[in-house]
Amino acid sequence: MTKGTGKRYDETFKKETVKYILENNKPVAQVARETGINTNTLHGWVKKYGEQPEVKAVQTFSSPEAELKALQKQLRDLEEENEILKKAMHYFAKSPR
User: Fold this and answer.
1) Contacts by residues 72-80 (CB-CB < 8 Å, ≥ 24 positions apart)
2) Given 23, 49, 62, 85, which residue has the most CB atoms within 10 angstroms?
3) DSSP code of residue 46
4) Residue predicted with more confidence, 21 or 50
């Protein structure tokens, strides 16, 4: 199986699709069925474009609890990334060159 034989979508289409998912609070799997785009591809787009200011501005929360939950998830993700970077820093600081 060759890699890279899938469809190519332009950046605008990707951002608009992510906006659609966030504005309508739709599950990625549902949008994947509607558009015929692979679910994993859409999850990647949401991860990549969901934090950009023009896309993030459209996110709506149904309640303060939903917003809190989203912020807590974002905090956990950032803390995890920070831990990975710390471990990498220690690894490279110790390794002989």
Assistant:
1) none
2) 49
3) H
4) 21
